[in-house]
Amino acid sequence: MLTLSKKIIVAIDGSPQSDKAAEEAVRLASISGAKFKSQLYAVMILPSTKTPSFTDFFPEKPADEMPGWQEKRDRLFYVVEKAAAEAGVQLESLVSYGDPAEELMLMAGEKSCDVIVVGSSGKGRVKRTLLGSVSTKISLHAHCSVYIVR
Fold first, then answer.
1. Contact (Cβ atoms closer than 8 angstroms) between residue 95 and residue 27
2. Can you list the domains of the chain with their CATH numbers?
3. pTM of the model
4. Each residue of 105-148: pLDDT tens digit?
5. Phi-psi map region of 109: left, alpha, beta (phi>0 left; psi -120 to 50 alpha)
6. Cβ neighbours of residue 16 under 8 Å, at least 6 residues apart?
7. What is the 3-state secondary structure (H, E, C) of the chain?
């Protein structure tokens, strides 16, 4: 039911499809109106730093500790934060590390989300061709509703 409060999680990666998904997630959250407040979680998943490689001998800081991180973060979350503020939707912005599909489904379970909203395709065409898209993995394995935005 769209008239009751929902917990919605949306994937953010800076792509145009991600921006469309963010706008649609805000629209879904705002449908419930003032009486039933929906909660929106905007999640950006960064590559895992757990993969061993030659660079382990010269470890880099995590992305969120690098210079200029705050400006990049603000730019990536700009669309969803602006749309949520204009619509009066409660928003929590989160950053996580790991496989995007797995992390989104894990977070959706932890937050007891009713809907996962993702863009039809984000960044990484080569990886998507070889390993499959994030939206495909989520639609096949998620334990809640999935809304794929084109």
1. no
2. 19-51+80-149 (3.40.50.620)
3. 0.81
4. 999 999 999 999 999 875 556 555 555 688 889 999 999 999 99
5. alpha
6. 119
7. CCCCCCEEEEECCCCHHHHHHHHHHHHHHHHCCCCCCCEEEEEEEECCCCCCCHHHHCCCCCHHHCCCHHHHHHHHHHHHHHHHHHHCCEEEEEEEECCHHHHHHHHHHHCCCCEEEEECCCCCHHHHHHHCCHHHHHHHHCCCEEEEEC
